[in-house]
Amino acid sequence: MLPDADPALSLEWSTLQDNHERYERGLMWLKLLSVTLSAIALISGSAAHWMAFLVAVLWAQEAILRTFQARLSVRILRIEALVREGADTTAACQLHSEWEAARGSTAGLIAEYARNALRPTVAFPHAVLVLALGGMSLLD
Q: Where are the membrane-spanning stretches (predicted)?
């Protein structure tokens, strides 16, 4: 809870912060799945091209989920600013309204996913694994 904050804003902040951290834990499991699939392919020496494809799909999924997480971050920062300004309950519960007002076109949304996919903390380990598996499949 945020000290000296409107209760509705404080509850929204707590909920969004908890969801933000849940995304983080879930995304770490997704990375672990990528590593596990890659290890299976590298150890077994087979189906590397299919595993590379699966890792690329997991990479894209992480980028999409990171984009959702980033939206939560934007709203969390907005709530913190509202608390500093002494806003009241009418400012609470505006996550989707604010996102919809700022949302771009479909192409803009895809570009946002791509930007998130290329962030170093998202690309690693997926890019390395795709390259390793791709190289392995070329050697077969």
A: 32-59, 122-139
How far is the C-alpha of 113 from the C-alpha of 27, rounded, in Å?
15
**CA-CA-CA-CA torsion sign (122, 125, 128, 134):** negative
Has residue 86 got a pLDDT over 90?
A: no
Q: Where are the domains of the chain?
A: 7-139
- Spatial CA neighbour of 89 closest among 11, 15, 17: 11
Q: Would the CA dihedral through 118, 123, 128, 131 be positive or negative?
A: negative
> Quick one: which of 139, 140, 122, 125 has its CA closest to 39?
125
For residue 3, what pLDDT band results from cuts at 50, 70 and 90? low
State pTM to two decimals: 0.87
The DSSP annotation for 61-117 comes to HHHHHHHHHHHHHHHHHHHHHHHHHT--GGGSS-HHHHHHHH---HHHHHHHHHHHH
